[in-house]
């Protein structure tokens, strides 16, 4: 289907990869792997035609369509979710208009026996057949199935896309690409913004797709379930393994052993040649042999070993005080924003040393409960933090809190304490910051690199309760393995909010499911939990309660005509205007609260120092900011209540 021939890409003196050649066949599912910076995303862009290689070429048949989802997109659409998804059928819609135009022309013509009329009939028949083949009559249902599969509610379909976060808007872009049904799908980290249910749906979709897929992902379970071929970019070369990822890992280890032996033999041979040259360089009787050795040395092509493999290590958290037997106890904890109840009646007790997972659809309250435990937001009920508990928290936006003016090495040097300072280079190497990478300024790092750096900082803190909110979103396979091994060896307590099944497997012994305002406890690992739900729901997590949802949808659909008749167009328009205004006010208020909370956190750190404690200006600012924060939280609660009332009356 697509052939890549002698592809070379150069950034600076050293090529990113060179002489890369392989063929993508129909229905193949390819995992594209390699360390960060190896060129995976660049290769996808070249295949998609968005970037030109330095040398070589990509041969794509003329009738082959390609769909490309990058890691990051600048999305500026101003439509509703449904309207944006319809753009996937732009060609089909245009064809439908052509069919209608031809039909009208035929109805107006009376020269049934003429050659022109017969030609028009043939054109109409061909266009109509093509229109039917494309499934034009069912595309609205297909849009609905895809959006629901990716986690959208039916009530979201007519909301403006501008109301959604960047992660949800990436889901809309993914939906558009999937709806186009391209011959070749290029997906760069598609699961970063998906929850477990949506990932499972995407796995099924790709399994049933008739086209080819080239996939870059750090979700090991996802690529194992989807792909049947693995292409590795290593040391600037393409290495093709026609097996699944798990089998590739075994074959790669064997290949690396062979490479290491060959590398060691070559280094020994080079050392012997150099030694011979130095010993006999100035002896006339050995001149011929010396010159021969020099020529042999010049002809040797050095064997390269990927640096990422040398950096494997075991990282342990620094020792910390022993916490109490029960680090976290929740008793009837609840959280509501106005009339919207995020969760209620939460009762959970974490024992010292337990490692648990918080799972559920986005928006069900996982991060909200974490913020309650961190005492960052008010809540109802009783929440006790145990004796001697030292909390280490990795937020979803942790990477944005780094000092951009420091280098990578300086950032870690400031966080390291005690003996671990002697191993900074090893730690940086384990997270792909070896060599010159450690001298990079934080401000030039990519989002993924910043996430890894923030993760290293957390690993260096002496804590006994770890709370990690989506820690693996931007970590590659090796970095995740290092983190997982460190967490396994961690003798404290851990709460992990994650959609990464492979990461959670073998790590957690208990799962807390967030759904429909409730938090349910499940004993066992993540796959025990998923198996239980798959049995109940046949396929996807959470579908066991689908009948209730369907009843609600049917009820809404039944009431809709009455509401439509009762409310005029102008009234609905005014309602929409008030709703958008209220949502904007709530969003602005939330940003103000977040900004003031961040400033209070900064001031708190400064005031803990001897110099800061005596600074009257800072103390005054802290008091004023705290008062303004309390007022803003009250304002937010009022605005949220008004917003919920508007939604109910919509």
Provide a quick synopsis of the model.
With 650 residues, the protein is an alpha/beta fold. It has 22 helices and 18 strands.
Can you put this structure into words, describing what you see?
The protein is an alpha/beta fold and 650 residues long. It has 22 helices and 18 strands. It has helices spanning 40-47, 81-86, 90-108, 115-133, 139-149, 166-179, 196-208, 220-226, 245-280, 287-299, 307-310, 366-373, 408-415, 424-430, 447-459, 477-489, 501-504, 526-537, 546-566, 569-607, 610-613, 616-649, and strands at 2-10, 15-24, 29-33, 55-59, 66-69, 184-188, 212-216, 229-234, 237-241, 328-337, 340-350, 355-360, 380-385, 391-394, 465-469, 493-497, 510-515, 518-523. Helix 7 links the parallel strand 6 and strand 7 (212-216). Helix 5 crosses helix 6 (166-179), helix 9 runs antiparallel to helix 10 (287-299) and helix 20 (569-607) runs antiparallel to helix 22 (616-649).
């Amino acid at each position: 289907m697509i052939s890549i021939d002698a592809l070379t890409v150069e950034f600076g003196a050293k090529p990113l990869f060179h002489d890369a050649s392989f063929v993508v066949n129909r229905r193949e599912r390819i995992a594209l792997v390699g360390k960060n910076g190896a060129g995976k995303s660049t290769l996808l862009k070249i295949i998609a035609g968005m970037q030109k290689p330095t040398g070589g070429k990509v041969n794509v048949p003329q009738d082959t369509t390609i769909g490309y989802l990058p890691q990051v997109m600048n999305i500026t659409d101003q439509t509703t979710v449904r309207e944006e998804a319809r753009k996937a059928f732009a060609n089909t819609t245009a064809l439908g208009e052509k069919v209608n135009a031809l039909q009208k022309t035929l109805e107006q013509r009376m020269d049934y026996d003429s050659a022109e009329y017969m030609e028009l009939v043939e054109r109409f028949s061909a266009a109509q057949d093509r229109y039917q083949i494309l499934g034009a009559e069912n595309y609205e249902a297909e849009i609905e199935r895809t959006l629901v599969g990716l986690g959208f509610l039916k009530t979201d379909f007519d909301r403006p896309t501008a109301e959604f976060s960047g992660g949800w808007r990436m889901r809309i872009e993914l939906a558009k690409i999937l709806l186009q049904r391209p011959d070749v799908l290029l997906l760069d980290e598609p699961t970063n913004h998906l929850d477990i249910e949506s990932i499972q749906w995407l796995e099924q979709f790709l399994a049933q797709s008739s086209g080819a897929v080239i996939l870059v992902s750090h979700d090991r379970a996802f690529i194992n379930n989807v792909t049947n071929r693995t292409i590795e970019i290593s040391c600037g070369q393409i290495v093709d393994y026609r097996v699944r990822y798990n089998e590739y890992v075994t074959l790669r280890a064997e290949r690396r052993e062979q490479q290491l032996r060959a590398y060691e033999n070559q280094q020994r041979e080079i050392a012997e040649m150099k030694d011979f040259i130095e010993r006999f360089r100035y002896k006339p009787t050995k001149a011929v042999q010396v010159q021969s050795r020099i020529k042999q040395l010049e002809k040797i092509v050095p064997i390269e070993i990927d640096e990422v493999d040398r950096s494997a290590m075991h990282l342990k958290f620094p020792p910390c005080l022993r916490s109490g037997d029960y680090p976290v106890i929740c008793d009837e904890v609840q959280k509501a924003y106005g009339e919207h109840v995020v969760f209620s009646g939460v009762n959970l007790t974490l024992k010292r040393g337990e490692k648990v997972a918080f799972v559920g659809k986005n928006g069900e309250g996982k991060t909200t409960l974490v913020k309650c435990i961190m005492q960052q937001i008010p809540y109802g009920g009783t929440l006790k933090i145990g004796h001697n508990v030292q909390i280490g928290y990795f937020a979803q936006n942790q990477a944005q809190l780094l000092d951009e003016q420091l280098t990578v090495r300086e950032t870690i040097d400031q966080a390291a304490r005690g003996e671990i300072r002697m191993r900074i280079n090893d730690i940086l190497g384990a997270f792909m910051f070896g060599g010159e990478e450690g001298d990079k300024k934080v401000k030039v790092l990519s989002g993924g690199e910043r996430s890894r750096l923030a993760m290293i900082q957390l690993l260096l803190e002496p804590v006994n309760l770890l709370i990690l909110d989506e820690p693996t979103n931007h970590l590659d396979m090796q970095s995740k393995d290092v983190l997982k091994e460190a967490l396994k060896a961690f003798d404290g307590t851990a709460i992990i909010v994650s959609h990464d099944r492979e990461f959670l497997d073998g790590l957690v012994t208990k799962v807390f499911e967030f759904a429909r305002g409730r938090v349910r406890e499940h004993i066992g690992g993540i796959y025990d939990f998923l198996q239980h739900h798959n049995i109940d729901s046949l396929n996807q997590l959470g579908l066991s309660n689908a009948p209730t949802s369907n009843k609600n949808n049917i009820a809404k659909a039944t009431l809709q005509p009455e509401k439509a008749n009762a409310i005029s167009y102008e009234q609905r328009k005014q309602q929409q205007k008030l709703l958008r205004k209220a949502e904007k006010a709530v969003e602005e208020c939330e940003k103000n609260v977040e900004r003031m909370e961040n400033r209070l956190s900064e001031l708190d750190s400064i005031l803990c120092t001897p110099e800061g404690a005596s600074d009257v200006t800072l103390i005054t600012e802290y008091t004023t900011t705290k008062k303004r924060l309390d007022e803003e939280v009250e304002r937010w609660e009022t605005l949220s209540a008004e917003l919920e009332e508007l939604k109910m009356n919509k």
